[in-house]
Specification:
Layout: H1 10-15, H2 21-33, H3 35-41, E1 43-50, E2 56-62, H4 85-92, E3 108-115, E4 118-127, H5 135-150, E5 175-178, E6 184-187, H6 189-198, H7 209-217, H8 224-230, E7 237-242, E8 245-255, E9 260-269, H9 271-311, H10 315-340, E10 346-347, H11 348-363, E11 369-376, E12 380-381, H12 383-404, E13 410-420, E14 423-430, H13 445-457, E15 461-466, E16 472-479
Parallel strand pairs: 11-13
Antiparallel strand pairs: 1-2, 1-4, 3-4, 5-6, 5-9, 7-8, 8-9, 10-12, 13-14, 14-16, 15-16
Helix pairs in contact: 3-5, 9-10, 10-11, 10-12, 11-12, 12-13
């Protein structure tokens, strides 16, 4: 266990702690949700677990978003002072919150984090000293203490999945306090504003939220889950939309060891957020439709070129049309890869094999077998780099098939790539008939395309040489323009 001392990752600290997998999962759930206690109670929380050598180590911590922190420096991975160990050992097996007798630690409270009878760790709470605590602050502190006290007997974190909404409500967004009769006893200003936006003009204090919302939506406008949420009976979350106003809600039932003690209901108005989400969905649908039409148009151009190829009698014309068709297909494949990308970058290693296989199938003679192999990685490329690079590789591979394997039954082309920051190093090696002399600039349209893209677009270089045994080797060095995008 001593290896945990230098760890800073809560997951790794818990993984090397001596506890069951179920207890470890329970602590992860606690860490994921305990920020609510910190925000309501204006307090810092720390998770202490045994380190196997008689001491305790801090496995996780959370600071409040509503108050200054008592621990501005990160303490995860640090051991607690030995003078605190007896208190932590006592708290580890206790089902009620404890405060240390040592005056040095008196602002601290602790509860045991138990999972099915197994004491997995200790949660410590420490509040920042405040000069004044008003009614609004006190109602949050009282609710935080109830949630904190639920940890030892397994009532918090909740066992059912909550926080399923994309835009979750947090304590600073607004919260209401319900008593055991599901009546509102306190409400933050932001929470009152949320219900006013929904159309409720009265006072919330003393009202039942179910009746308040039913008065706004009508008897048929509320389902069972929404009623259970608004009454605080179950830990649920949902979005309430009335008159084009949307509020996300989350209920946090408060339990004693045996009895229900009310609930906290978090709320946040998300009308503007949902409007923007709707606009984004419309834009995404529009972009998808545009991409679909571009793809169809490129396919139409390719089909028209194929028709012209079949109708052409001059071999030179056929060859030129075939080259044009191949280049259109290269752009089409890259565009298809970009339209399917989620982060506006192209995974070039996935798109390249399809692109070059299409070129080889078009250019090979009869039953000629040409094998393509790849080494290294091109990685993610910005569209401004991917399209010209695709055309460069398409021309070089096409040139190898057309000239390197003319009259051959089979052959192999090896393509390797290496990334180093903005620099991309490419090596294309074939085992064909070999290179008599390097192509001259301007010798063909294909080589003009390669030279222009390499030197002008990428400020790079290209070097032709005979292969190690036979065939031809081409080395291309490029400076990626979109490498930092």
């Amino acid at each position: 266990m001593n290896e945990c001392r230098n760890l800073k990752d809560p997951e790794r600290i818990l993984s090397c702690s001596e506890m069951s997998e179920g207890a470890r999962h329970f602590l992860h759930s606690l860490i994921a949700d305990w920020g609510i206690i910190a925000d309501l109670g204006y307090c810092d929380l720390q998770l202490a677990v045994k380190d196997g050598a008689g001491g305790f180590i801090c496995a996780a911590q959370v600071r409040p978003a509503t108050a200054p922190s008592c621990f501005p420096e990160d303490v995860v991975g640090q051991k607690f002072p030995p003078s605190l160990w007896p208190f932590l050992s006592q708290a580890l097996g206790c089902r009620h919150p404890l405060c240390p007798a040592n005056p040095e630690f008196t602002p601290i409270s602790a509860v045991s984090a138990n999972w099915e009878g197994e004491a997995a760790g200790v949660v410590l709470q420490k509040s920042y000293p405040a000069a004044h605590t008003g009614r609004y602050e006190q109602m949050g502190i009282d609710s935080a203490w109830k949630l904190f006290s639920m940890i030892p007997f397994g009532k918090f974190p909740y066992k059912v999945p909550v926080n399923t909404q994309r835009h979750n409500a947090h304590v600073p967004d607004g919260f209401l306090i319900l008593n055991e009769m599901s009546l509102v006893t306190d409400a933050s200003p932001n929470a009152i504003s949320c219900f006013k936006r929904l159309g409720f003009g009265g006072a919330l204090i003393g009202r039942n939220l179910v009746e308040v919302v039913r008065g706004l939506t009508g008897a048929e406008g509320m389902g069972k889950d929404m009623a259970a949420l608004l009454s605080g009976e179950s830990p649920l979350d949902a979005v309430l939309s009335i008159n084009n106003i949307s509020v996300t809600l989350r209920s946090l039932p408060l339990w004693g060891e045996r009895d229900y003690r009310g609930a906290v209901v978090l709320c946040r108005e998300i009308t503007e957020i949902r409007r923007r989400d709707k606009e984004l969905k419309i834009k995404d649908a529009t972009i998808a439709e545009i991409n679909h039409r571009i793809k169809n148009n490129l396919q139409s151009v390719s089909s028209l070129l194929a028709l012209q190829i079949r109708g052409a009698e001059n071999e030179e014309v056929k060859k030129a049309l075939q080259t044009a068709k191949r280049r259109v297909q290269a752009i089409s494949i890259l565009h298809d890869a970009l339209s399917q990308s989620k982060n506006e970058m192209i995974d070039f290693d996935l798109a390249l094999p399809k692109l070059l296989k299409t070129n080889v199938d078009i250019m090979r003679e009869g039953d000629q077998k040409i094998l393509l192999s790849y080494e290294g990685s091109f990685g993610l490329l910005a569209p401004r780099d991917a399209t010209p690079l695709a055309l460069i590789l398409s021309e070089l591979v096409t040139n190898a098939v057309e000239h390197g394997f003319a009259g051959e039954d089979e052959g192999e082309i090896k393509i390797s790539a290496e990334r180093a920051g903005k620099a991309l190093y490419i090596r294309i090696l074939d085992d064909g008939v070999g290179l008599k002399e390097a192509p001259e600039e301007g010798q063909s349209l294909g080589m003009n395309i390669v030279e222009t893209f390499v030197k002008v677009d990428f400020q790079g270089s290209i070097l032709w040489s005979p292969g190690p045994g036979s065939g031809t080797e081409v080395r291309v060095t490029l400076n990626l323009n979109g490498a930092l995008e």
